[in-house]
Amino acid sequence: MHLVSAFNTKQIGHVDCPGGGQVWVDGNILYIGHMRPPSGTTLVDISDPRNPKKVATIDVPPGWHSHKVRAQDGLMIINHERFGNAGPADFGGGLALYDTTRPAEPRLISKWITGGHGVHRYDYDGRYAYISPTADGYVGNIVMILDLIDPVNPVEIGRWWIPGQWTGGGEEYPWHDYVTPRCHHPLRMGDRLYVSYWHHGLFILDISDISKPKLVSHVNSSPSFPHPTHTCLPIPQPLKGRNIMVVADEDVAKLRASPPAFTWIYDITDETNPLPISTFQVPGLDPDGEPQPPMTGCHQPSERFKGTIIPFAWFAQGLRLVDIADPFVPKEVGHFVPDAPDGAERSSSNDVTVDDRGIVYLIDRVRGVDIIETSVL
Fold it and tell me: With the CA atoms of 126, 128, 133 and 138 taken in that order, what torsion angle do they form, in degrees rounded to the nearest 10?
């Protein structure tokens, strides 16, 4: 892959592989969740990031994908979600749990199955998985918490949904003239879940009783802004004396033609009343407010980061490194824009993560992972 533009960054390695939906690092292994079957998950040894070596692959059948992956301490969790209508219906949506203590020989431990299309994205803290499954009796994806202390027998211990989703329980469905509610994924910090809910906005949930999540607050920028809420990333340390959450909108599934999606910075010091205090857009990307093609703007921040600099996968704009030390004035401090992979008109940076060495891994939706060194992390 050729380079279009770089600032405070340098490519030091590359993994040639099918495109994907998520990258994650645990120890010296890079885990890649691929977008399209039959490619499911690839494990890559990055002990030497300049010479990455594939050590294992896991395939999925037609009609399903496993484009998300998390791993910690030898346990790998991958999603199974419907991808089109072909293929075996009995494969089933849910989560597959693998023993990866020997990364070259991943061993399936168990599969947790849910109703409907399966699981989209999720968080994992070493014991609990905070997931976004479809479920029998519900319209759209909901919030669910699984206890994985025994990975042979995952156990649901809590769930939450927007009232009206549980039509199987007799709730009246109120969104006949609007987009179906869909939990994209929860992220945990402390005893709170920060939940993105697509065109239904963001929710903060109290999980001090993990079996009974309770609503703290809700904000929705749709339909005023036509992009779905993709990720709600709480910042662990106060910034300028305020508690901060980064909220990324995704530049797809727009309610109407629009300029590229951007990211919001919310003040959640009073968590019952989250307030947007600033936004960030790639400089020069939206000069006039006119509509641009989907997948031009924002997608996903790295859910692992150091200090106040957040790496973002910004679709056609590649990697953007955004410093939120002053949350009222976020600023770009680095970027890396790769050329389009073969067969594509432009790059489509889909996800990003960082390892303990400060090395950045950026996956394209169509093909390849760039391994990037930066002077600012």
Answer: 180
